[in-house]
Amino acid sequence: MDGRIAERRAEVADHHRRRRRRGLASLAVLAILAAAAGGVLASPLFGLEEVRVSGVEGERAAEVRDAAGLVSGTHLVTVDVGGAAARVAGLPWVGEAEVRRAPPAAIEIDVIARRPAAAVHLEDTTWTVDASGVVLAGGAPAEALAIDAPNSVLPGPGVRASDAAVVNALTFHAALPDALAERVVRYEARSGRSLRMRVVPAEGEGIWVRVGAAEDVERKAEALELLLEQAAHRLAEGGVAELDVRAPGNPVLVPLDDG
């Protein structure tokens, strides 16, 4: 037999032996990993014992645990963290929720709660909403910004309002400079383009200001500040019925005797 052929056959045989050894080694590793995984799944050390909630406390933390629906003793590996997060995020007052495993026996739930922004007074009921218009609950929190919207209809808790009058009021308020927004105590929203706000000047009682649609808010705010400054003495004396900045280039002060 030619020496080169014999040498080539020996190389091929050696290659096959190495492949078999690698295959056997891989099977052994997989068997070890499978056994380890089976041991972990069977181990009572990884049974769920605690659900930790951060971001809220008291009754709301308890509500989060209930909504998560996690069963004590469930193996940590098999806990559906995505499903739990979705259930918690479904609570009307929850803005964001994150659920993660904390071995060996705990689940951690981080919650960011929606913040009440206003109390919307409808014809026969009142709802609390956040700044984006999501309905949080019935009733009005103490010192909440009031929006009177007698012609509006709001959805149930957890749903974002689409009513034009309410959306216009929230959009307008969010666009105001902070210093002015802090002086607004009430809105009257009868339609998507008919909006008045009650502003407390530096001196005197509050005054109604017609602002209309949530357009050119910055210019309307500047016009209002100028009007408040120029008419400060008349406002303090109570001789003004309302202000009108719907046309910010031509703001109007309506005397009280003009009705």
Short synopsis of the structure:
The chain is 37% helix and 25% strand.
How would you sum up this structure, described in words?
This protein is an alpha/beta fold. Helix content is 37%, strand content 25%. The chain contains seven helices and twelve strands. The strands form two sheets. Strands 6-5-4-7-8-9-10-11-12 form a nine-stranded mixed beta sheet. A three-stranded mixed beta sheet has the order 1-3-2. The protein starts with a helix and ends with a strand.
Q: Which sequence of strands runs across the widest sheet?
A: 6-5-4-7-8-9-10-11-12
Number of helices: 7
Secondary-structure-derived class? alpha/beta
Silhouette: elongated
Tell me the distance between the termini. Answer: 121 Å
Secondary-structure element series: HEHHEEEEEEHHEEEHHEE
The poorly predicted ranges are none
Instruction: Classify the oligomer.
Output: single chain
Give average pLDDT, whole number: 85
Instruction: Give a short account of the largest sheet.
Output: 9 strands, mixed
What is the helix content?
25-40%
Question: Percent of residues in beta strands?
Answer: 25-35%
Q: Over all CA atoms, what is the radius of gyration?
A: 33 Å
How many strands? Answer: 12
